[in-house]
Amino acid sequence: MPKRVQPRSPDGMQLGGLLVFGLLANSYIVPLVKMERIPRATVNRLPLYLRALESLPSDQGTVSSRELAELIKENSAKVRKDLSFLGTYGVRGVGYNVENLRFRIRRDLGLTRIWPVIIVGAGNLGSALAKYGGFDASGFTIVGIYDNDPEKIGTTIGNLTVRSMGSLRRDAQERNVEIGMITTPVPAAQQVAEQLADAGFKSILNFAPMVLRVSPEVEIRRVDLSTELQILGYYVQQSLAEG
Amino acid sequence: MPKRVQPRSPDGMQLGGLLVFGLLANSYIVPLVKMERIPRATVNRLPLYLRALESLPSDQGTVSSRELAELIKENSAKVRKDLSFLGTYGVRGVGYNVENLRFRIRRDLGLTRIWPVIIVGAGNLGSALAKYGGFDASGFTIVGIYDNDPEKIGTTIGNLTVRSMGSLRRDAQERNVEIGMITTPVPAAQQVAEQLADAGFKSILNFAPMVLRVSPEVEIRRVDLSTELQILGYYVQQSLAEG
DNA sequence: AGGTGTGAAACAGTTCACAGCC
DNA sequence: GGCTGTGAACTGTTTCACACCT
Q1: Which residue of B has its CA nearest to A15?
Q2: Total-model pTM
């Protein structure tokens, strides 16, 4: 018998990670239950669901967990569990409303706004990312690229001009940038990470093949190609060993 | 009281995923226990351990689990558990032999050889990867880059000439290439994946922002920048909500 | 004393299976 | 009949805590 906290109960509203139940007579806000966070594993799949939903024909009104599961190569039970964490209502016997679900996921991912992002490191990879047009479609826009090489500063990449590290802090604060990508060589990466943390960045996408160490309130994700290849290598070797 | 199978027991040897105990008098090989696989979570960390080990000063003979833990930002219990799956012996009160541990991890990851890798998609990202020198240090070497755009075929990127998709299959088989990276736009990616699978590739590193569907014996890893940003976005938003 | 190896506990994530609603 | 929502079971991963070795 379902006894869990009702997301969106009649007089409850979700607010900043707390489930708040009503304003009492004397104006106390009473947080009854700490709202359960969406599990990390689920958060990691939300972008995939969103993409799947966006790939559906525009006249498709509803979608079943099985359909979604096929699109992201998972099973339908997982999809249903995941979506249940959003407090989204599917309709039994019918499925999920595509439009509504898309909206919910966009909202939970914070995609109701466009996030400005900067790149530090104007080498091959940084330049390629600066020119890559695909971010805008996902809700992000590259607003700056930085380097400390005087040869590179002032040059143009895509529609951006490479700027000096010295101007990073002020630029970022002016434009409210909170997400940065590090595409420098390894020796520079740690220092850059500290500069970003210092400038108030909240999250970092790190392409330098190393583990960065900054204060834990900065969320860091690593995109580590060598590591990915080595992991693939393990499984290739494994498949050989098994014949 | 430890009663687990002894890795590297005096008369046992590890062979193709089986722990084989001794050759009996009449030449029967007796596989007593199916060798426990290294857990995925551990495999994913092996490249990090390797890098950490390689970053140690060359005169450092041993390393403790705590030291390694700091280098990869994990805790020491996890490090010890992970390393125990390799059947590696640390020495109580001392730590792990750096040289030996490095060798074991390289061997388990299959890095005793250099793996040839090809890239499909000679756009910004593919070109940047082709020029990126960092793979060689990790045991991989880019031996070809492919595209189906006649404008690109024949042009030079780094020290590679872009070749046509038509030559992929034969090239790969001649050179025994089993790992491919897909850096094409989304619409081409699925078809390319099928071509790779068909040409006998064992694993694919997919940079196209979509979920590929090929037969399950092909190991696929996704490097999905938009998705990474969206995940970061979630946590940035979350941190705002909490104040 | 210092540090590994590892059962056992705790936690996280996945899958099952089915009641309940359309 | 179809499909969601979700407890419960299960599987995988992390952490604890301590016996044991050097």
Answers
A1: B241
A2: 0.87
